[in-house]
Amino acid sequence: QVQLVESGGVLVQAGGSLRLSCAASGRTFSSYNMGWFRQAPGQESEFRAGITKSGSVTYYAEYVMGRFNNSRDNAKNTVYLQMNRLKPEDKDVYYCAASRLPLQRKTDEYDYWGQGTQVTVSS
To answer: CA-CA distance, 106 to 91, in Å (whole number)?
Structure first.
C-alpha cells in the first residue's frame, strides 16, 4: 500500500503561484495514477488535476485548466502540482490520491490518500 505525504501549502497572494509536492513510499508508485483534490471545511473533495502512471497524460478540472500543471517524477516517487494565477477560491486543503484506474475524477475511484496540505490565498 502506497503512503502519501503532501507538502508545499502556504499563504500566497491572489494571482501568485505555488508548487505542491506529494511524496509516496514504496516501490509501487509507478503502478498508480495520481490525482489532486481540494476540500473546503464541511464539504466534499473536489477534483482538480490528474496524471497517468507514466506521466504521459494529464487532465484537469475546467476551473483550473490553464492555471494548474500536474507532473510526476517516478524516480523520486513524487507528484507535483504547479498552481499559477491563484484565486481566493483555490484555498483550503489539497490532497493527493492514488488510483489503479486512469483518468478518474471521482473520489471513490482513488484508494489511497495523503494527509493534506493547507493552501491559503489572500485577496
So the answer is: 20
Query: DSSP E strands: which ranges in 3-109?
Result: 4-7, 11-13, 18-24, 33-39, 46-51, 58-60, 68-73, 78-83, 92-99
First-residue to last-residue Cα distance in the chain: 39
How would you label 45-57 residue by residue, b for 16+ Cβ within 10 Å and e otherwise?
bbbbbbbbbebee
- The answer to whether residues 16 and 83 touch, using CB atoms and an 8 Å cutoff, is no
- In angstroms, the CA 71 to CA 13 distance is 23
SS3 of 76, please? helix
Residues 3-57: pLDDT tens digits? 999 999 999 999 999 999 999 997 789 999 999 999 999 999 999 999 999 999 9
Percent of the chain with pLDDT over 90: 96
Q: For position 1, what pLDDT does the model report?
A: 80
